[in-house]
Recover the amino acids of this structure.
């Protein structure tokens, strides 16, 4: 049986680390890119080779083995315009160019389902790279996941403290089919081994049914045996905050970045993370592909049993 060799970029991120872990369990030899001084974030394994990134003025050099499959988990943390261009687009372009020089078997890009209706800087940056990848001559797969569990559990601490669960509007205006990092990693690793899944855009979510914020509040309250107490927040709060800092935008990078973060907050407060049905002009849970068996309920239950609280980075959390 030929050796399975994989190169993972963005290997120290939330999904990247899980891809590396699952690939090693499945017998891959894994080459993983890490930033200097980030080596300790990776597991110890004889089949794991770390590639300490060398970043130049215009590009980053990735040492990809000849003929390896490449998985890019590269993603900006903040989503601001400069960060999105430098990471979501430019760093991915450097990776793709290195992949072309390395006779890469297939290049899998981890994108996001929200690029279906692009309004934000990071969405346009991801789409710009998606377009470049599709015309690169490489075999490719573009995976667009829905919502991650960790992006939806930031309010567990509030519920545990008997504070109200916050949602926008009435809590039923948006929905998603969240996917666990394990199920997503397995889907991505299956994809690189299946030529029938190459040269396609692949939206993917976790098990159905779709959940609204109100559903999630009820699940968290039930598991932690707390009364379901909620509080509605108007999505217009983001418009108000953006208006307040608008006079500073021409002279302040801080104001421009904060304004874009307000745009991001408004987007996630008002848009579902499901497949967009352009013909009907709505999000469609039934048309959103599902994979895996990990449910949001089981994830929160495990959090309670282990005492862990998994949340998004402080840079990007809303609550």
């Amino acid at each position: 049986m030929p050796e399975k060799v994989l190169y993972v970029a963005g290997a120290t991120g939330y999904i990247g680390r899980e891809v590396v872990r699952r690939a090693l369990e499945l017998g891959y030899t894994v080459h993983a890119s890490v930033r200097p001084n980030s080596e300790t974030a990776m597991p110890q394994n004889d089949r794991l080779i770390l590639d300490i990134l060398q970043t130049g003025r215009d590009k980053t050099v990735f040492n990809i083995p000849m003929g390896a499959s490449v998985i890019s988990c590269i993603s900006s943390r903040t989503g601001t315009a400069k960060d999105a261009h430098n990471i979501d687009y430019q760093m991915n372009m450097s990776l793709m160019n290195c992949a072309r020089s390395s006779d890469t078997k297939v290049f899998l890009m981890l994108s996001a389902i929200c690029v279906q209706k692009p309004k934000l800087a990071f969405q346009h940056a991801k789409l710009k790279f998606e377009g470049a990848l599709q015309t690169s001559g490489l075999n490719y797969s573009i995976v667009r996941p829905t919502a991650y569990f960790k992006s939806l559990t930031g309010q567990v601490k509030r519920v545990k403290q008997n504070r109200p669960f916050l949602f926008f509007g009435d809590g039923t205006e948006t929905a998603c089919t969240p996917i666990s990092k394990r199920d997503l990693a397995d889907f991505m690793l299956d994809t690189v081994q299946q030529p029938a899944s190459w040269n396609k855009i692949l939206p993917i979510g976790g098990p159905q049914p779709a959940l609204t914020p109100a559903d999630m509040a009820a699940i968290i309250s039930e598991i932690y045996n707390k009364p379901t107490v909620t509080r509605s927040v108007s999505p217009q709060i983001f418009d108000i905050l953006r208006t307040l800092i608008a006079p500073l935008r021409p002279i302040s990078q801080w104001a421009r970045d904060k304004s874009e973060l307000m745009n991001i907050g408004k987007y996630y407060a008002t848009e579902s993370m499901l497949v967009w049905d352009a013909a009907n002009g709505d999000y469609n849970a039934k048309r959103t592909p599902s994979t895996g068996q990990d449910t949001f309920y089981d994830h929160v239950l495990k959090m309670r049993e282990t005492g862990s609280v998994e949340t998004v980075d402080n840079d990007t959390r809303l609550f």
About this structure: The first helix runs from residue 14 to 25.
